Each structure stands twice: as C-alpha cells, then as structure tokens.
Amino acid sequence: MMRSLTRAAFGVTLLALSGCQFFKSEERVIVQKGYRGTAMEINYVARDVNAAMNDLARQMPAILPPASESSPPPQWQNVQVLNDISVSEFNRTMLSFSTWVGGNPGNCAYCHNIANFAADTYPDGKAIYTKTVARRMIQMTRQINSEWTEHVGNTGVTCYTCHMGKPLPNGLWFYTNENQILRHYLDGAGARVVSQSITPSNANRSSVKQTEWTYALMISQSTALGVNCTFCHNSRQFSSWDQAPPQRVTAHVGIQMLRDVNTNYLAPLASVYHPSRLGTMGDAPKAQCVTCHNGVNKPLYGFAMAKHYPALWGTHTDWVTPAAPAYTRPPAVVMDSAMVMMDSATMAAPVAPTTPPPGR
Ligand code: HEC
Ligand code: HEC
Ligand code: HEC
Ligand code: HEC
To answer: Is residue 216 within 6 Å of ligand 3 at its C-beta?
Structure first.
C-alpha cells in the first residue's frame, strides 16, 4: 500500500489540470525517508496536500503553444540578452513575462514604455527600473538552469517559479537585526556547529548563538520545503553526511546556488531599483529557499515548466558588457519521474557531497 502511495508522481499529474490527487487516500500518510528502523519519515495530511496541489494547478498559467520556427531574423534595437531566439519565440516569451511577473497577459506596461518598446526610459527620460531588473533576471534564470543543474535538475525554473504571477516573490529579505541568520547563511559562513570530538575541546569554537542560528536556519529550510528534519538528516547524528538522505546534498548545493544568486545577481541590483524597493540599510531584496520552493519539496510540485521556454536556457552572459551568447539548444529534456517519493527500497545509498563542504 505504501508503495502505491509513494510511487505517485507530483509532476506528471499536474498537467491534467483538474482533479489532481497526489495521495489516493484522504487520511494521514507517512512516507518513509530512510532505512527501516531509523524512524526517518514525513507525515502528510493527504487532504491538505491534494487541496494545495489543486489550488496551484488552477492558478498556474497555461504553457503557451510553441512558437513557429519560420519567423524572420530578429531586428531589435535594444535587445541585449534575448538576441539568440527567433522573433516568434521572443514574442511568446514577452507574453509569458507579462503573466508570470506582471500578473496578466498583456501587462507589457509593467516593464515598458509602450510608445517605444526598445527604450529603457519613459517618455520623460526616467529609467524604467523594472525592465533593467527583468533583463538581469533573464540572465539569472539562465545561470540557474544551466549552471546549477546539480540542484534544479531537468526541472529548472522559470520566472513563475519565484514570481507566481506577481512582481514581488515570497520570502524577500533584507539586512536587519532580526534576520541576520539569513545573512550569516546565504552570504556568509557555513552553518556547521556540531563538535567532532566527544570530549570538550578548543577545536570547536562555535558559540551558543551560532548554534541557535543554525537551528533557526534549519527551521526555515524545513518550513520552506514543507518537510521535517529527517528529510535531510538522520537525527541520531545531525552532522553525519554518510547517514543522511541524498536530499541533504541537494540542499547543500542549494545553499551555494543561493549565494551565487544573492551575491552576483540580486544584491548588485540595489542601484537599479526604485528606492521604495530597498531595505532600511539600502540593500536590494534577496531570495531564500522559500522564494522558489513555496512550501513544497520540489517547486511547483516538480512540474517541469522551464523546458517549454528555450529563452530561459541560454548560456549565462556577462552583465557589464553583454555579449551575444553562444546559444545551444539544450538536449531534449526527459520528464523527470525521479519525483517519486522514496521508500527504503528505492532509496539510493547516501552519497557524499560532490563539492567537499568547506571547513568551518
Ligand atoms: C517583466 C518585464 C517585461 C514584460 C512584462 C514585458 N517585457 Fe518586453 N522586454 C523586457 C526586457 C527585459 C527586454 C529586453 C530584453 C533583452 O535585452 O534581452 C524587452 C524587450 C522587448 C522588445 C524589444 C524592443 C527592441 O527592439 O529593443 C519588444 C518588442 C518587447 N519587449 C515587447 C513586449 C510586449 C509586446 C510585452 C507584453 C506582451 C512585453 N514586452 C512585456 C521585459 C519585459
Ligand atoms: C530565484 C527567484 C527569481 C526568479 C527565477 C526570477 N525572479 Fe524576478 N525577482 C526576484 C526577487 C527576489 C526580486 C526582488 C523583488 C522586488 O523588486 O522587491 C525580483 C524582482 C523582479 C522584478 C522587479 C519587480 C518590482 O516591481 O520591483 C522584475 C520585473 C522581475 N523580477 C522579473 C523577472 C523575470 C522576467 C524573470 C524570468 C526571466 C524573473 N524575474 C525570475 C526573484 C526571482
Ligand atoms: C532541506 C534539507 C535540510 C533540512 C530539512 C534540515 N537540514 Fe539541517 N542541514 C542541512 C544541510 C545542507 C546542512 C549543512 C550546512 C552547511 O554545511 O553549511 C545542515 C546542517 C545542520 C546542522 C549542523 C551540523 C554540523 O555539522 O554542525 C544541524 C545541527 C542541523 N542541520 C539540524 C537540523 C534540524 C534540527 C532540522 C529540523 C528543524 C534540520 N537540520 C533540517 C540540510 C537540512
Ligand atoms: C532557484 C530556485 C530554487 C531555490 C532558491 C532553491 N531550490 Fe531547492 N529545488 C529547486 C528545484 C527546481 C528543485 C527540483 C529539482 C528536480 O526536480 O530534480 C529543487 C529540489 C530541492 C531538493 C530535493 C527535493 C526532493 O524531493 O528530492 C531539496 C532538498 C532542496 N531543493 C532544498 C533546497 C534548500 C534547502 C534551499 C535553500 C537553501 C533551496 N532548495 C533553494 C529550486 C530551488
């Protein structure tokens, strides 16, 4: 019985937009995450998961029909990143932007001076910050989809993964005294605090405060993914990588990806945003796990939306001197059926982190 429940795939079923049911039952469901006897399990209230999934399926904008191949070569005036796709693919992408970020199809004015789509300024000469931000967001999305596949796999992300039909994604954070945990974590040092020796020694310099931070961060990760600690740890030894499920390695790569996203893409936009968007210390809004995950272990329940939008897969281009990227169409993406929740029979042997986690 457990097997039939755990084999159900989030991602594939989402395409059928009505009557989604992740769990067949309406009851409480326990999904085993570790080897038998380790009590590593996640409890779901099946009714809530099914309802949340249906809500999402109702809200999600439809995938636009594929663009025709035979459009004329682009002759844009001021296109710095999306110059490697056909005109019809470009238009399709713009239309999607207006839904994913602007909130409704045709809200071009959110990013444009509609008297002159090529302009980066309004008729009065003021900068259209949303357009400049969006240009950088395209580069960031390409960077995530092409350089961070160790985390996002074939599923990838689109603007909708974070924006979900609104300009401001969930989980924005700024530097303040309250959430320094995120600073410490996402653009600071690691979170390891557990002592490696039995007897107290000077080798472990972690303070009680650091330990509290680590705990707060872990709570925020659990909440962001809608899981408990044993999704990533064998709680008999939190620091052990050998005993942890593979998801901990994915999470570790996720932390590094967020550092890249925050330090190289989001934070440097501080000079571009309208001042009303900045934090009290003048910093730009930044992202965290929940910004993509929105309470689910795989964003959008693993629905692979990005593969339908070649504009979001190009090579990462440079910000300061944008050059035409050498664009290669990504290999055909296989619908990810690895979405299956694991039981101990299907669970891969725990793997050591591919990037050796840096020391304290
Ligand atoms: C979320 C922001 C956003 C929305 C919404 C948006 N665009 Fe754009 N648009 C951009 C960005 C950014 C560029 C420049 C892309 C680049 O530099 O690669 C652009 C460029 C363009 C250009 C190229 C102009 C040129 O010659 O340089 C056209 C045409 C265009 N958009 C049309 C539209 C239309 C029509 C809509 C509404 C259906 C729309 N856009 C909605 C962000 C947006
Ligand atoms: C990893 C998550 C993430 C992805 C993916 C993402 N964005 Fe963003 N975006 C953000 C964050 C965080 C902000 C800051 C919100 C703010 O402006 O306060 C933002 C802000 C913006 C803004 C400015 C909104 C405003 O009113 O201030 C625009 C426009 C935008 N993004 C467009 C895009 C487009 C277009 C894409 C896809 C090519 C995209 N974003 C993909 C996280 C993301
Ligand atoms: C989504 C995966 C994930 C979840 C859920 C999670 N953790 Fe972690 N945890 C990690 C990763 C990854 C690290 C290593 C961070 C690093 O190296 O910077 C870590 C590190 C830790 C550490 C420090 C270990 C050391 O070597 O010092 C402790 C303690 C910890 N987690 C406790 C918890 C607790 C308690 C919970 C539940 C509230 C939890 N974790 C939930 C992924 C997770
Ligand atoms: C840019 C968006 C994005 C951000 C930010 C992000 N993730 Fe993810 N994450 C994804 C996507 C997409 C997947 C699904 C990958 C797949 O289908 O293989 C995923 C998958 C995972 C998984 C595997 C889930 C499973 O069921 O096997 C874990 C664990 C995870 N993320 C943890 C984290 C943690 C922890 C953070 C914050 C430190 C984080 N993620 C930040 C996009 C993101």
So the answer is: no
Q: Which domain holds residue 255?
A: 171-293
Say which CATH number the domain at 233 has: 1.10.468.10
Over the stretch 193-236, which tens digit does the pLDDT of each residue have?
776 666 766 666 667 777 888 888 899 999 999 999 999 999 88
CA dist 20 → 9, 25, 53, 64, 180 (Å)? 11, 12, 7, 21, 39
Decide: helix, strand or coil at residue 179.
coil
Residue 251 beta carbon below 6 angstroms from any ligand 4 atom: yes
Domain assignment present for 286:
yes
171 Cβ contact list (under 8 Å, min separation 6): 224, 287, 288, 289, 290, 291
Q: Total domain count for the chain?
A: 1
Rounded to the nearest whole angstrom, what is the distance from the C-alpha of residue 214 to the centroid of ligand 1? 42
Residue with tokens 């099946």: 46
Task: Name the pTM for this structure.
Answer: 0.86
Instruction: Tell me the sheet residues that pair with 31.
Output: 42
Ligand 1 atom closest to residue 82's alpha carbon, by position in its atom list: 18
Pick from 45, 68, 254: nearest CA to 155: 254
Please answer whether residues 1 and 8 qualify as being in contact, where contact means their C-beta atoms are separated by less than 8 angstroms.
Answer: no
Q: In whole angstroms, what is the distance from residue 5 CA to residue 7 CA?
A: 6
Residue pair 118/77 in contact by the 8 Å Cβ criterion: yes
Residue 66 lies in a domain: no
Tell which wins on pLDDT, 316 or 1.
Answer: 316
Q: Is residue 212 part of a domain?
A: yes
Q: How far is the CA of 248 from the centre of ligand 2 (A)?
A: 27
- Does residue 311 belong to any structural domain of this protein? no
Determine contact, residues 285/268, Cβ cutoff 8 Å.
Answer: no
